[in-house]
Amino acid sequence: MIGQAYKVGESLGLSVWTQDEAGPFQTVPYEGYAWQPEGEPKRQPHEYVRNGTAKLLTLFHPSDGQVRVKGVTSCPNVVLHPWLQQELSAILADLPPPPEDLDPETNRAVWECWCAGLDNPPSLPDDLPPLRMLLIWDNLKGHKTPIFVDWLIQHGIMPLYTPLGGSWLNMAESVQRILKRRALAGQHPTKPDQIITWLEAVARAWNRNPTPFQWGGKRAARRARSRRRHHALAGSGACTRRPIRRPRRTKIEEWRSTCQMTH
């Protein structure tokens, strides 16, 4: 379902966003590369003080690469939900208006097609607004708060949860790694506020020239074609590029395989 959202969601007129919380990032030296004179590498202190942590709330739009972030020292529901409501409301305000001639039966069918195959689909109210956005995020308890899920649905947002152990389905994980590496590699922050400032500055720089993300892409297509050209073997994960020729059975072997035990 999430793969389908990445592949066809935007073509169906739905804005596909992903959400995640990165961190916690500690006030410790971070490994990384730096431009230094030859023979004079940058040195990090071997003693440091753990002076708190920082986290990064992230909303990512894969089709154009835009990212919305906010640095915090902790992200309970009282912090995460108001920020999401503010950012999602701003995103919806910039989207094209929904179609006005959509009958209720068709509108419900559109919602229910994104609920197909889910173990615990959200309960849809009788009066449904037009579906405008798909929100992909992790399968956390705080993401399933009934009040917040109802708010999402009332605003035309369908939440899609990654399965347990399936965080690799969330593209926000990828952009967070890029931001974290660019902000903290080779640095030694001493306060959480420094980490927050650096991460938010890198996100602003990223948005000046964002890179769109694509699910699968050409590499995945090449792997699929390669798998179709291979022939799996029994007993292990081995395969061959051409089928193994099997010798023809003799008449005796055919007779033995067709005989039936009678006693």
Supply the key terms.
36% helix, 8 helices, 5-stranded mixed sheet, 263 residues, Nucleotidyltransferase, domain 5, alpha/beta
Summarize the structure.
With 263 residues, the protein is an alpha/beta fold. It has helices at 2-8, 77-94, 104-113, 146-154, 172-184, 192-208, 217-229, 251-258; strands at 15-26, 53-61, 66-72, 133-137, 157-161, 231-232, 239-240.
Explain this structure to me?
- With 263 residues, the protein is α/β, with parallel strands linked by helices.
- The chain has a single domain, classed as Nucleotidyltransferase, domain 5 (2-Layer Sandwich), CATH 3.30.420.
- The protein contains eight helices and seven strands, in the order H-E-E-E-H-H-E-H-E-H-H-H-E-E-H.
- Strands 3-2-1-4-5 form a five-stranded mixed beta sheet, with helices on both faces.
- A hairpin with a 6-residue loop joins strand 6 and strand 7.
- Helix 5 crosses helix 6.
- The longest helix is centred in the N-terminal third of the chain and has 18 residues.
- The mean pLDDT is 80.
